[in-house]
């Protein structure tokens, strides 16, 4: 099994992590379903790709292939969410803030289809990076909109004030 905090490999009967000292809860007590590769923790349900000790070789091989296919599907979703995040930022800055916001929202909805992985794993880090990218794709166009509206009001008031003062002379 792996430490839920730092990801270090530990023996099955370990009570605390040898690397970071994090107390470890027995996975069997926290099972949420029949699949041995998911475990519950206070922050959510995490995927643990380690084999169960009660599986035969053929069951394990079949399960590994299935998990690889599922993981590839998650990687594809993360890749498309990453692309949508970049596109959202570019569209939001250069072209249309609405298009940027829509792309960012679609990217976040794709990220919601990917489960939470154990912390500090590459998939978890990729998901967090994609979420930040898509959030920026939503926030940047909104901020630019607000700045444009503020400058527009400043220009209207400045022009209006200049036109009014010129009329008196």
Q: List the secondary-structure elements in sequence, H or E.
A: EEHHH
What class would the helix/strand composition place it in?
mainly alpha
> Outline, from the CA principal axes?
elongated
Helix content: 55-70%
Would you report the number of β strands?
2
Spatial order of the strands forming the largest sheet:
1-2
Individual helix count: 3
Strand content: under 5%
Low-confidence stretches: 27-39
Over the alpha carbons, how many angstroms does the gyration radius reach? 25 Å
Q: How far apart are the first and last residues' alpha carbons, in Å?
A: 84 Å
Explain this structure:
This protein is mainly α and 169 residues long. Helices cover 60% and strands 5% of the residues. It is built from 3 helices and 2 strands; from the N terminus they run E-E-H-H-H. Strands 1-2 form a two-stranded antiparallel sheet. Helix 1 (57-95) packs antiparallel against helix 2 and helix 2 packs antiparallel against helix 3 (122-167).
